[in-house]
Design brief:
By secondary structure, this protein is an alpha/beta fold. It contains 33 helices and 24 strands. The chain folds into 2 domains: about 375 residues, Glycogen Phosphorylase B (Rossmann fold, 3-Layer(aba) Sandwich); about 240 residues, 3-Layer(aba) Sandwich (Rossmann fold), CATH 3.40.50. Strands 7-10-11-4-1-12-13-17-18 form a 9-stranded mixed β-sheet, with helices on both faces. It has a 6-stranded parallel β-sheet with strand order 21-20-19-22-23-24, with helices on both faces. The structure holds 1-beta-D-glucopyranosyl-4-phenyl-1H-1,2,3-triazole. Keywords: Allosteric enzyme, Carbohydrate metabolism, Glycosyltransferase, Pyridoxal phosphate, Transferase.
């Protein structure tokens, strides 16, 4: 009975002496207890890494308490929940973020110093959780932080890859990839839920059976793999709410193996078991080139099937009628990668729950929403029909059925316009017949979101024009945002303190719009002075890191000019490097007396190239070759340095971004769906040098064109410029390309194909045609930097205008307009 249950709970609570305490002595005791009993080291003898592990475990205990409270509360209130399905999450480190969100960072720092340790030093011991490629994956991580902070009843679902994104190692200037076996030393943040497992089925055949006089399809699978849940707590800031990121790992299934054992082939059976773990073993490192590999499809279904089983189980615990499903469940598809969920929901509702097709479809159409991050049709995922048919035969049938009904309906609406019908069909006919995952997602979702204003407009005007004309109300915009907790509070504590001091409150950490309050002081010499000091401190940290990584000493008086992001032709790191060569060439050819007028620069480039992306790898090599030349030229000295920061990841970003004066977001217009790096730099008072692409257009709206350096062709001009081709190649660009071709930086044969992309007749990414305008923007940046007060004012206005680019704003918008969910806050002060 309830009475005895609560009596039992009460007794337990007393035995445990209530909740964990956060005073300095309790924290010290907890850390030491974990040193002794969890890490199993003597409390008299442990190193920094062991201290970090014990510290992390003590934080984990506190997270678990809160996550239990949150889950229990959600269960009691039973609100509509959102389930965020993403194939990738770039969480980075958890320690600092957790203690800050828990509101006990200072207490921990104090406890540690009593024990003779420094919080910052231990925090450095933690490796990154890098279960994703780039922007899309870090966006998921930022959005989880916002969902927790804003008290939304949300769950994240994903895959627990054993190998995250490869580590980038540079040898002789060339990128090499090394495996990131990040679980080597255990992962204190996750909890394995051995009882939360689901069978996931593959292969086999579909047979028609007769069930109480009705025909139904039964899938007899050929392979079963068990999915086991690993829960990662996501604490909100200024709230007790702590939500869960549930990641699935593959485990051998006993169901499947019985047969093998019975046939007597014991050794082979054990070896086969091992194969199950392969499903979740490695993250695909190509962000966007689509390859149609079976393992990838297996990963997608594995993740989707386990998540849907979990969601339906939770629903059924409290409800018996699927009519209520759309009132209790919203499913968010983060790009097309999880969109097999649509077919899976249909399969479960029709084949397992025995709902009629129309009813099931009606439910599916009410629960799914879809966000797309791609810009061009070539980036869209297509799954060969043969592959899907062999791996998931029942799902192929279901997708055909969905498509048949959709096309029938479409014919009624638009008539027999066969071109349009074939463009909109979920099935693409052709040499390789395939499933267009984006079309499937659009057909079933009630909302299709782009990730910036221009991107959302492009979707309507180009990529999904046909669908927009059919269902204009489906198409919306949710401009991306990033979390100020990670990107200011965790990564830039001095700026955080400065902002709070001048605003007279820390409330902006939950209510980022308050940052606009800084505008009033942008010209105040006192704030400017303090602002410059903060930047100096962060540049110092970065300079130390650069020297440790590359041996290059850089001057703190120079402008730190940063471009860090995945290496892609469209992001135009090549334009940046050619610009640097031009700058170098100018300095070399200058009268010595003129050199004192040059604004000194430290150019910093970082990012990973997909392992098979040859041109991107050549860009990395070119960067190193040019750096080698410039950094060793005594003529140039501190006027120009170029450094490549290896293995750019979340924790490196936390160091680099606060230390940047200028950052470059220079994609060919129309190619960057949004861009989120720019928002992190903006928050940290870094000025942007950018093209009018993605979310930069909205950044301009917020801070004004005077406060950043814009250049280059606009989106609508790009097609014409492409037509014109390289006759428009400016002399300055031709000259620097010539230097590379002539072997000025060595490796002339190797760089040939890279140079061809610019002057080979196509210049698809308009490096040549944007070159002059790029140099002008760079000159304007130099000029502004020479006036520290002006520059600092622009910097303050950048931070002040960054509020719109918080993921809190994005998530609130999703919750209200797309998911229809409301906050569900555990009643306490956090
Ligand atoms: C992945 C697969 C297919 C097509 C595109 C992608 C993709 C896009 N992966 N990451 N992105 C980036 O997503 C970010 C978050 O929305 C954007 O800011 C950025 O512009 C995309 O390139």
């Amino acid at each position: 009975s309830l009475g005895s249950d609560s009596a039992k709970a009460e007794r337990m609570f007393r035995l445990m002496d209530g909740f964990l305490k956060n005073d300095s002595i309790s924290l010290q005791q907890d850390i030491l207890r974990h040193v002794e009993y969890t890490v199993a080291r003597s409390r008299f003898n442990f190193d920094d890494f062991e201290a970090y592990q014990a510290l992390a475990h003590s934080v984990r205990d506190r997270l678990i308490e809160r996550s239990h409270d949150t889950q229990l509360y959600f269960k009691r209130k039973d609100p509509k929940r959102v389930y965020f399905l993403s194939f990738e999450y770039l969480m980075g480190r958890s320690l600092s973020n957790s203690v800050i969100n828990l509101g006990i960072r200072d207490q921990y720092a104090d406890a540690l110093s009593q024990l003779g340790f420094e919080f910052e030093v231990l925090a450095e011991q933690e490796g990154d959780a890098a279960l994703g490629n780039g922007g899309l994956a870090r966006l998921s991580a930022c959005q989880m932080d916002s969902m927790a902070t804003l008290d939304y009843p949300a769950w994240g679902y994903g895959l627990r890859y054993e190998y995250g994104l490869f580590r980038q190692v540079i040898l002789d200037g060339f990128q090499h990839e090394q495996p990131d076996f990040w679980l080597n030393f255990g992962n204190p943040w996750e909890t394995e839920r051995v009882h939360v497992t689901y069978p996931v089925k593959f292969y086999g055949v579909v047979e028609e059976e007769n069930l109480n006089g009705e025909k139904c399809n039964v899938w007899i699978p050929g392979e079963v793999v068990e999915a086991v849940a690993y829960d990662n707590p996501i604490p909100g800031y200024g709230t007790r709410n702590t939500i869960t990121l549930r990641l699935w790992a593959g485990k051998p299934s006993d169901q499947h193996d019985m047969e093998a054992y019975n046939t007597g082939d014991y050794i082979n059976a054990v070896v086969c078991r091992q194969k199950a773990e392969n499903i979740s073993s490695v993250l695909y490192p190509d962000d966007r080139s689509f390859q149609g590999k079976e393992l990838r499809l297996k990963q997608q279904y594995f993740f989707v099937s386990a998540s849907i089983q979990d969601i339906i189980r939770r629903f059924k615990e409290a409800h018996s009628n699927f009519d209520e499903f759309p009132e209790k469940v919203a499913l968010q598809l983060n790009d097309t990668h999880p969109s097999l969920a649509i077919a899976e929901v249909m399969r479960v509702l029709v084949d397992k729950e025995h709902l009629g097709w129309n009813k099931a479809w009606d439910i599916a159409c009410k629960i799914f929403s879809f966000t797309i991050h791609a810009v061009i049709a070539e980036g869209l995922e297509k799954i060969p029909v043969d592959l899907l048919g062999s791996l998931l035969p029942r799902h192929l049938q279901i997708i055909y059925e969905i498509n048949f009904k959709f096309v029938e309906e479409l014919k009624k609406r638009i008539g027999l316009d066969y071109n349009r019908l074939s463009r909109m069909s979920i099935i693409e006919e052709g040499a390789v017949k395939s499933i267009r995952m984006a079309n499937l997602a659009i057909v079933c979702s009630h909302t299709v979101n782009g990730v910036s204003e221009v991107h959302s407009e492009l979707l309507k005007a180009k990529l999904f024009k046909d669908f927009y004309e059919l269902w204009p109300q489906k198409f919306q915009c949710k401009t991306n945002g990033v979390t100020q907790r990670r990107w200011i509070v965790v990564s830039n504590p001095s700026l955080c303190a400065l902002i709070s001091k001048w605003l007279g409150t820390e409330a902006w950490i939950r209510d980022v719009d308050l940052l606009t309050g800084l505008r009033a002081y942008a010209a105040d010499p006192d704030l400017q002075q303090e602002w410059m000091m903060v930047k100096k401190v962060n540049k110092m940290r970065l300079a130390e890191y650069i020297e440790a990584m590359s041996g290059v000493k850089v001057s703190l008086d120079a402008m730190f000019d940063v471009q860090t992001k995945r290496i892609h032709e469209y992001k135009r790191q090549l334009l940046n490097i050619l610009g640097i060569i031009h700058r170098y060439d100018c300095i070399k050819n200058m009268e010595k007396s003129q050199r004192s007028k040059v604004v000194p620069r430290v150019c910093i480039i970082g990012g990973k190239a997909a392992p098979g992306y040859e041109i991107a790898k050549k860009i990395i090599k070119l960067c190193h070759a040019v750096a080698e030349k410039i950094n060793n030229d005594t003529d140039v000295g501190d006027l120009l340095k170029l450094v490549f920061i290896p293995d750019y990841n979340v924790s490196v970003a936390e160091l680099v971004i606060p230390g940047a004066d200028l950052s470059q977001h220079i994609s060919t217009a129309g190619h960057e769906a949004s861009g989120t790096g720019s928002m992190k730099f903006l928050m940290n008072g870094c000025l942007l040098l950018a093209t009018e692409d993605g979310s930069t257009v909205e950044i301009v709206e917020e801070i004004g064109a005077d406060n950043l350096f814009l250049f280059g062709a606009k989106i609508h001009e790009v097609p014409n410029l492409r037509e014109e081709g390289s006759p428009k190649m400016p002399l300055q660009c031709a000259r620097v390309i010539r230097m590379v071709r002539d072997g000025y930086f060595g490796f002339k044969d190797y760089f040939e194909s890279l140079c061809d992309t610019v002057d080979g007749g196509k210049d698809f990414y308009l490096v040549g045609s944007d070159f002059e305008s790029y140099l002008e923007a760079q000159a304007a940046a130099d000029k502004a930097f020479a006036d520290p007060s002006k520059w600092t004012q622009m910097s303050i206005l950048s931070t002040a205008g960054s509020g719109r680019f918080s993921s809190d704003r994005t998530i609130r918008d999703y919750a209200e307009k797309t998911w229809g969910i409301e906050p569900c806050r555990f009643p306490s002060d956090g």
